[in-house]
Write a structure and sequence with these properties.
The chain has 195 residues and is an all-alpha fold. It has one domain (6-194). It has eleven helices and no strands. The two termini are 22 Å apart. Pfam families: Trep_Strep. The chain crosses the membrane at residues 12-34, 40-57, 64-80, 115-134, 154-181. Keywords: Membrane, Transmembrane, Transmembrane helix.
């Protein structure tokens, strides 16, 4: 197993920054398009537009650990930016699982890449999972951050079981479509540069 070198870590940092930028742009657009639902659908929309970044990372740094580092950095960003304290764990765990799928399974390459990207994309649900599974603790954290009842009620206005299912299906569809689009973009604009 090849070990990550300094230049690999720099490359991972660059692609993680681009991933952050895409995620931020998606969030900004969603705030205007579907206000009130934007946080719930940011994982799916980010997955839709980030497939090409994932593919570039896999080709530029084809080593175990690169995906884990990217997911961990994203998770730590959630931790230090005031999200619910456990919001960072899904990013780290899903990224590690994606790495393991990609480099320690014997399924075909295309399937490995697709499954690993789907799993990686589910990591972005970390900040919203507590809305359903740790509601009281999440409310306590919002109160501790000085949020009033109106804000808290707005946060939980759409957190139904059906909405959770819709969010999960949206991430799955977004990741599949995102990797399909990303592979087309990669083949057209980046593959020749890697050869």
């Amino acid at each position: 197993m090849k070990k990550l070198k300094v230049q690999d870590l720099i490359a991972v940092g660059i692609y993680t920054a681009i991933y952050f930028l895409l995620m931020s742009v998606c969030l900004l657009i969603l705030r205007f398009v579907i206000p009130g639902f934007h946080n719930l659908f940011i994982p799916a929309v980010t997955a839709l537009f980030s497939g090409v970044i994932y593919l570039i990372l896999l080709h530029k740094v084809p080593k175990f650990g690169a995906i884990t580092i990217m997911g961990t950095v994203v998770g730590l960003f959630f931790l230090i930016s005031g999200h619910f304290p456990l919001a960072f764990l899904p990013n780290m765990l899903c990224a590690l699982a994606a790495d393991l799928i990609l480099y320690h399974t014997k399924i075909t390459a295309q399937v490995k890449i697709m499954v690993s990207y789907i799993v990686f994309s589910f990591g972005l649900m970390g900040p919203i999972l507590p809305l359903w599974f740790m509601k009281n603790a999440y409310i306590d954290s919002l109160i501790a951050r000085g949020k009033d009842d109106a804000y808290i009620n707005g946060v939980f206005a759409h957190t139904t079981t059906a909405m959770f299912a819709l969010c999960a299906v949206a991430v799955l569809v977004g990741a599949i479509a995102g990797l399909f689009i990303g592979s087309r973009l990669y083949d057209k604009h980046f593959r020749t540069a890697d050869q």
